[in-house]
Design a protein that fits this description.
By secondary structure, the chain is an all-alpha fold. It is built from five helices and no strands. It has one domain. The longest helix has 31 residues. Its main location: membrane. Pfam families: Ni_hydr_CYTB (PF01292). Keywords: Cell membrane, Electron transport, Heme, Iron, Membrane, Metal-binding, Transmembrane, Transmembrane helix, Transport.
């Protein structure tokens, strides 16, 4: 899931070109439509994966909380994880609203505000990864 999210964050060019073409003249080339569709399909897949992930999390539960962590780190981890979950839903929903029915404010929110906040959440999440394992847990796979 992380790979497809990073893919769409790093390669929005097709959607950007389509959006510019639609704003300027209302006609997009076949290549622009194809690239925009690819971005939209990946975003829709992210939404589907997010739904599956939340369902699995509800059934299986989350990883155990590391009680040896300072309370502030546990709090920050909860806030960041909540934010990541919120954004793996908010980004596709606003993108779908912008692309298919053409809700312009959703597109601005999606491409400008939410994308920046999502990058900040990803940075906060990744910044805690390279730490020593606790109780045999691998440092890069500690949900």
């Amino acid at each position: 899931m992380a790979l497809v999210i990073v893919f769409n964050l790093l390669f929005p060019d097709g959607m950007n070109e389509w959006h510019r073409a639609m704003r300027r003249g209302g006609i997009a080339s076949a290549d622009q439509v194809s690239a925009a569709n690819s971005h939209a399909y990946v975003g829709t897949a992210i939404l589907a994966l997010a739904i599956v992930r939340v369902c699995l999390r509800r059934v299986q539960g989350g990883p155990p909380v590391v009680s040896e962590e300072p309370a502030i780190f546990r709090l920050v981890a909860k806030v960041v994880h909540f934010g990541l979950y919120a954004f793996i839903f908010a980004m596709p929903v606003t993108g779908i609203a912008a692309y298919y029915p053409g809700v312009d404010p959703a597109g601005s929110l999606h491409a400008d505000v939410l994308k920046v906040v999502l990058w900040a959440l990803i940075a906060a999440h990744v910044s805690r990864c390279p730490r020593p394992p606790v109780h045999g847990r691998a440092p890069f796979f500690d949900g």
